[in-house]
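User: For a reading group we're discussing how well predicted structures match intuition. Take GIY-YIG domain-containing protein. Before you show the prediction, I'll give you the sequence so everyone sees exactly what went in.
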Amino acid sequence: MEIKNIYSYLNPYINRKQIYKDLRNQSGIYLWTNTITGKKYVGSSINLNIRLKNYFSKNYLEYKIQLDKSLIYRALLKYGYSNFKLEILEFCSIDSILEREQYYLDNLNLEYNLLKTARSLLGFKHSEYSKKLISQALLGRVVKEETKEKLSSNTQAFPVILLDLNNLFVSLYPSIRKVSDLIQINHTYVNKCLNKKGYCFIKYYFIIRNNNMN
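Assistant: Thanks. Here is the predicted 3D structure of GIY-YIG domain-containing protein, as structure tokens, for the group to look at:
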């Protein structure tokens, strides 16, 4: 498969200020390539700027590799940013990120990707009912009226999805107030943030509004 990109950065750490400028308020798909070994990693984020700021923090990478087996984090620390190329493959809407990331996972040889399913829910236990809701929410499918009623008894409430910094699903909540109580943040602020940008980044979590369930 021929790889096409929107942006390409050699020695991305040195060029990080330009990267932050180019990717401001953008969601999409990115690709890391080790220029020594040729090994690759594809990922996605609903906020590429924030995601890459984490990549450029060695403290963050060192902390994360204590928690999981991320090959890309280990490789960045081992080889250094100067031996990696960063490409932004495409910008896409939040609703289509899962589908677009899966496209690249299916078509590229990605040695650093341990999981071959986009935004895998492995490691989380859910009921069959909640799995169905998660799938519909993340894929942007229309949810039936009875599902809406189960999610919220308050007609002014709308469901929101909580993601971690890796775009991994954490949970689905029936209202802003519910998720705000969980992460201990003012729900009015979250509401204003979602109305303005469509997502909210707070305390190492992304909160996104699921418009398809309104």
